[in-house]
Amino acid sequence: MALKGTFQDISLKDLLIFCHIRSHSGILLLINDKKRAMIYIANGTIIDAAMVCSCDRCVLASGEEAVIEAFDWKQAQFMFRPDNTVHAHPVRIQHDLHWIEQESKQRAARTACAQSTTIDLDTELQLSPLPPEHTDTTVTVDLIQWRILSQVESCRNLRAVCQATGIEPEIAIPAATKLCRMGIITSLGKISSVRASTPEQRYRQTAAA
Question: What is the DSSP string of 101-137?
Fold first, then answer.
């Protein structure tokens, strides 16, 4: 028997907990205005997921990333369809529900912090430390973002990154902003003319503070 409803009836977290407690196996379909997500559950455990655009079925996220993004949805319709064939589906999710929920909350907090931070060419950036529990997490970046990351530790600010990479400012600023929201880099604000210009000097200043 299919289970149907909306996030106003039950949250995604409680819905997944319900499936876990009952050891359900099947596919949980989530639908909002622009996206659809399919979460595969075997004996109450999330084993895979995918998120697509409703208009053209283009894949937007898969695996843990799809579930983490779905946790951020405020409104959606859902339908759980029991299906024992999911036991033959490939397992692409290794973390449990608790980890996924915590990761979603941490990303939301980083996004809120980043949205309150304005990045421009005079903003100094540094690579964010990766928590030990996230060392096996895969993060996808595009070529522009990768080029920025390769220069962050050796350049004084985003302006210097643009000079070193040849990336135009109108492309570098939104790319760096997205990296900040992803929690990969951290904004240190604008630097002064007397501020340290090398990673070693910045490290000594931070340690002294």
Answer: HHHHHHHHHHHHHHHT----TTEEEEEPPPPGGGTT-
pTM of the model: 0.62
Tokens 């970046």 map to which residue?
Answer: 141
Tell which CATH architecture fits domain 117-208: Orthogonal Bundle (1.10)
Per-residue pLDDT of the chain in tens (209 residues, 90 and over written 9): 679 999 999 999 999 999 999 999 999 999 998 999 999 999 999 999 999 998 888 999 999 999 999 999 999 999 999 999 999 999 999 999 999 999 888 888 777 766 667 889 999 999 987 654 455 556 678 899 999 999 999 998 999 999 999 999 999 999 998 888 777 888 887 654 434 445 555 545 444 44
Q: Find the distance separating the first CA and the last CA of the chain, reported in whole Å.
A: 62
User: What stretches of the chain adopt beta strand conformation (E)?
Assistant: 3-6, 26-31, 35-42, 45-53, 59-62, 77-82, 123-127, 185-190
Between CA 30 and CA 137 the distance in angstroms is 24
CA distance 108 to 120: 22
Rounded to 10 degrees, what is the CA torsion of 148, 152, 156, 160?
A: -20
Place of tokens 């909306």: 6
Domains in the chain: boundaries? 3-100, 117-208
Distance (Å, rounded) from C-alpha 112 to C-alpha 95? Answer: 24
